[in-house]
Amino acid sequence: MIIKTVELETVCGITSKLPENTKPEFAFAGKSNVGKSSLINALMNRKSFARTSSSPGKTQTINFYNINDSLYYVDLPGYGYAKVSVEVKAKWGKMIENYLHKSPMLKCVFLLIDIRHEPSDNDKTMYDWIVNNGYQPVIIATKLDKLKRSQVAKALKVVRTGLGVGADVTVIPFSAETKQGREEIWDLIEDSVNSLDKE
Ligand SMILES: Nc1nc2c(ncn2[C@@H]2O[C@H](COP(=O)(O)OP(=O)(O)OP(=O)(O)O)[C@@H](O)[C@H]2O)c(=O)[nH]1
Ligand SMILES: [Mg+2]
Question: How many domains does the chain divide into?
Fold first, then answer.
């Protein structure tokens, strides 16, 4: 994908109205600190346009990045962030769920899982949600650079088994450090946009 323009167009907090976008949206979900904002930066060809942090809970709003005036990347707040109150957690959960339920332009939800860890109950819930709502799930196994090559195949199996994904589900190993996996993700997004254009 050739990135010509990127713009942080809309930032939604708990009480904000969601934008009525007319271009396809691609959302990135996953637990706090898994690398959503880092992945979005890589997909925008920008170093730190989306804000990232080594302490979890950095993204606390739903951020819509307008790409080339033709599609949106949607950066979601992470779930499973331990340091916030039950009340705040519930509000974020509602906000994410509301977005995922009510977005006619949402075309694909990428679920990010840290390649080093077994998926959590929250990850499984999110995966089931994606499937049950009729989206074709795409799993991105993040932080690939943290593993030795010899460990990768086994780690991917743990991710697959943990989520209970079918053989038809794509799992893309990705590293924000080396950008490995980026082309494959771009290709998926472009194919999806192109198939919409033909409808
Ligand atoms: N080594 C390595 N570190 C990564 C990678 N992706 C993200 N990180 C690091 O992991 C930390 C969290 O990354 P973010 O992109 O902020 O994670 P997030 O999912 O957006 O987190 P929240 O906004 O808190 O939900 C940062 O310190 C990143 O530099 C990766 O592929 N490799
Ligand atoms: Mg973030």
Answer: 1
> Does 120 reside within a domain?
yes
Q: CA-CA-CA-CA torsion for 174, 180, 181, 183, nearest 10 degrees?
A: 150
Tell me whether residue 79 is in a domain: yes
Q: Is residue 53 part of a domain?
A: yes
Among 29-38, 58-67, 82-91, which is the least confidently predicted range?
82-91
- CA of residue 127 to ligand 1 center, whole Å: 20
Size (the chain), residues: 199
State the DSSP string of 128-193: HHHHHTT---EEEEE-GGGS-HHHHHHHHHHHHHHHT--TTSEEEE--TTT-TTHHHHHHHHHHHH
Q: In this structure, which ligand is nearest to the CA of 48?
A: 1
Give 42-86 pLDDT, tens digit per residue: 999 999 999 998 888 878 899 999 999 999 999 998 887 767 788
Residue where the block lists tokens 């799930």: 137
Q: Which domain holds residue 39?
A: 6-12+22-193
CATH number at residue 65: 3.40.50.300
Encode pLDDT of 145-159 as tens digits.
999 999 999 999 999
Mutate to test the pocket of ligand 1, among 11, 31, 32, 33 (most ligand atoms within 8 A of CB): 33
Assigned domain for 198 exists = no
